[in-house]
Amino acid sequence: MIVATAQSYPVRLSIDYPERSDRFTVLLRIVLAIPILIVLGLVTGGGGSSPAGDAGEGVRTTSSGFTAGLAVATAFMIAVRRRYPRWWFDFALALDRFSYRVGAYLLLLRDEYPSTEEEQAVHLEVDYPDASTLDRLLPLVKWLLAIPHYVVLVVLVVVAAILTVVAWLVILVTGRYPRGIFDFVVGVGRWGLRVQAYAFLLVTDRYPPFSLS
After folding, report:
1. Does 211 reside within a domain?
2. How high is the mean pLDDT of the chain?
3. Residue 208 falls within a domain, yes or no?
4. pLDDT over 60 at 64, yes or no
5. Is 86 exposed, middle or buried (0-12, 13-18, 19+ CB in 10 A)?
6. How far apart are CA 189 and CA 212, in angstroms?
7. pLDDT tens digits for 126-176?
8. What's the DSSP call for residue 132?
9. pLDDT band at residue 61, thresholds of 50, 70 and 90?
10. I need a labelling partner for 74 at 20 to 30 A (CA). Which of 23, 88, 136, 153 fits?
């Protein structure tokens, strides 16, 4: 099992830091986010999550059922035919990008209302894999090998949730999102995204690094 460094991993997430935050929309963020959360829920079959959900499971993307179904189908294709259909990779990537924009908005990382198409200030990239280089059997156990990451992410998500509440209060007083908290929450989302790419999107055989960077 090859453990990749944070710099070499084929998954990248960055979110532009806002110099100022809108106090009014921050105050009402949960209410304002309801329409786009409904859209995300409908697209994913109900139950999508947010960046700091991977920050909350990371800026987490799809409903568990949808993710599991896609992972099983992908694992089957890799094991039997050594192929990773480009069209469902592109769909999963587009859905991840959308869900992370929603997560960034909900977690107060950005004030722009999430677009269903435009990148905006949330930059998420996943390298399309060469299925011929992927191990045929490893996709069947990646979800199991990632258990140590799940344990760490549970702790990180709880911390990120608490810090988001702190950031909410600070923004209401100062109009600025504390940079240290911002970097931490984005880092948790980045960590969760790498784990998702390894264990469920199955785009790489390189074990995710234990890193926020």
Report:
1. no
2. 87
3. no
4. no
5. exposed
6. 8
7. 999 998 899 988 888 999 999 999 999 999 999 999 999 999 999 999 999
8. G
9. very low
10. 153
d(CA 164, CA 56): 11
Domain ranges, residue 41: 11-199
Helix (H, G, I), strand (E, B) or coil at 66: helix
128: Cβ contacts below 8 Å, ≥ 6 apart: 84, 86, 89, 203
Strands 55-56 and 122-126: unpaired
Residue 210 lies in a domain: no
How many domains, in total, are found in the chain?
A: 1
At 207, give phi and psi (nearest 5°). Answer: -65, 135
Confidence of residue 75 (pLDDT cuts 50, 70, 90): confident
pLDDT at residue 10 above 90? yes
Pinpoint the alpha helices (H) of 84-210.
Answer: 86-106, 142-145, 147-174, 179-199
Question: What contacts 48, CB < 8 A, 6 or more positions away?
Answer: 37, 40, 41, 60, 61, 62, 63, 99, 102
DSSP string, 147-177: HHHHHHHHHHHHHHHHHHHHHHHHHHHHS--
The whole-angstrom separation of Cα 171 and Cα 207 is 37
